[in-house]
Amino acid sequence: MTSEAAEITLMIDSRDFREPQPGESSYAPLIAAAKAGDSEAFERLIVFFHRKVLTTAWRLLGNEEDARDAAQEAFLRAFKYLRTFKSDQDFSGWLYRIVVNACRDLARKDRHREHTTSIDALTEGSSIESIPSEDDQEAAAIRSQNMAMISQALNTLSDKERAALVLRDLEGLSTEEVARILGSSQATVRSQISSARTKIKLYHERITRRGWRS
Amino acid sequence: MNCRRVEKLIPLFVGNDLDEDDLALVKAHAGYCADCRISIKQYEQSRQWLRGLEAPELDGAVLSQFRRDIVERLDDRPRRFTFSLHINSLEAAFVAVLLLLTLIAGLIYFPRTRSAAQLAEQELGLPSPSLQSDREPEAPAVHAVIHGAHGTGRRRPHNSERELVSTNEPPESIEDRMPSLRTAAPVRIEIQTADPSIRIIWFAAGSADLSKSISEE
Questions:
Q1: What is the ipTM of this complex?
Q2: B117 and B193 share a domain?
Q3: Domain boundaries defined on chain A
Q4: Residues A89-122: pLDDT tens digits?
Q5: Helix axes B60-86, A39-61, angle to 10 degrees
Q6: Which positions in chain B touch A43 (Cβ < 8 Å)?
Q7: What is the 8-class DSSP label of residue B132?
Q8: CB-CB: which of A50, A147, A197 is closest to B67?
């Protein structure tokens, strides 16, 4: 390992780091070291990005297990193709693209499987820390139902609509960034986002009329 | 601007995805159209509702396991990665050509060496099941007489054979004395496949023994 990478490792081991925001280049030395074949540097990149990658995969797939598989696959692909990454590129955007593709591939593979109730399973899972205390069981149940409804609403979208909406409205990326990540034109992305928002709005209206709390 | 056109722009308006001209148009229209204002509000509410999809807070153990799994899989990958780097296409092509040449050389050399071995056995009087004198070829044999240039063309005549040429006796074929040199006309081998329209026909430059053994079968 190079001395530069060693310094980075020490810096990260101090545990006072925060995840870099898109556009920040504090992980650039790590990328350079990882590109040079330093696997430890790549492990540090995993530490930096694993929450973001897992969250995005979960939002795209709506299922924790699949999200974990897709996130793993995304990191493996990132490692494999890191040599093709150019230093003037945005690493976040590059990684987003890999995540979206990994999720798309996994979704194609598991097309036959139904994930409509997956959010329920997820919110009841032991790995989730956000389950309320016993005093707040009712709130937890409502929240769980609401999450399941949102997940079902997202399931009404096509893969492309979902990807565009998740990246734009949930990940907060610009239309230009979303277009670049999805490999589409901005006009196409706008069309997909418009269609997706309309479907979500209609779904929300329907469940609101039935009495679901939003 | 009518409501129908504005309705199409509202989904993008709520996300601030319109250009300045369209943004101004929608704002102006919403100023006096109550229905479109309601529609805008509904879109905003649904967007807010969607944002309630909080990502799960995974605990430390799950995240640690996640990282470990990736690292383990990464450890498996370099071996394949290294292999693909070291064996490039040029080297692979070279190895393939080398193997092919070796195979061809083997195919050419093997019958020769076998024939030489049989000759040696015959000349030394060693028993060989393939050199039985009572076995007569059914196919017409091509005689490789001493003074002829044809035949196997791979060996020089033996001294004893040269002596035969010097006499006026009818020329004696080498193969009469050395049956291993007998060669037969090409053997036609036909194999009928399961598909009646496909028949494999193979002409083998066979020896007398081969042609006989095949005809016996």
A1: 0.73
A2: yes
A3: 1-113
A4: 888 889 999 999 999 888 887 764 554 444 444 4
A5: 120
A6: 67, 71
A7: -
A8: A50
